[in-house]
Design a protein that fits this description.
Elements lengths: L4 H15 L9 H14 L1 H4 L13 H5 L7 H11 L10 H14 L11 H6 L10
The chain binds heme C.
The site of heme C has 19 residues, from helix 3 and helix 5.
Length: 134
Amino acid sequence: MMKTGGWTMALWLCAGAAMAGAPSTLYTAQQATAGQALYTQDCAMCHGAKLEGEAGPALTGPDFSSAGSDNTIGGIFSIISQQMPANTPGSLTHAQDEDAMAYILQQNGYPASTTPLDYTTSLASTTPLVAPGK
Ligand code: HEC
């Protein structure tokens, strides 16, 4: 169905946005900014300054979440809220979990909006999380 690499990429990105339902309502810019500070302090030593992966896996790009990896917002958010930081699991507040998730979404090309990312909604979300290709 998808013939060329360019088309595949374009359709894939559109599909990601479409499947996300309303990707523009996932998180606010304030959450992503707070998440960046948190990430630098509590996550970068394992996941890399640019989320490229070190001791822990990459948190951006196809290595993190390609269309075939079946990751969802809820699945990734539950890992963050229950297992991360791996050296002190569960040490973050719910607000910090939300901020970290917002930052990861931002770094994977999801746009900010005026609706904050919410802990309970995100945990239950079955929306696919598809990172853009490189
Ligand atoms: C001590 C090292 C360490 C720290 C600190 C850490 N992580 Fe992780 N993280 C890991 C490892 C290792 C894994 C892989 C766990 C596994 O596969 O069971 C992981 C997995 C993840 C995943 C799932 C990735 C995937 O592809 O499924 C996410 C999301 C994540 N971490 C986010 C975070 C966030 C956000 C922080 C900071 C709040 C953080 N991590 C801090 C080591 C760390």
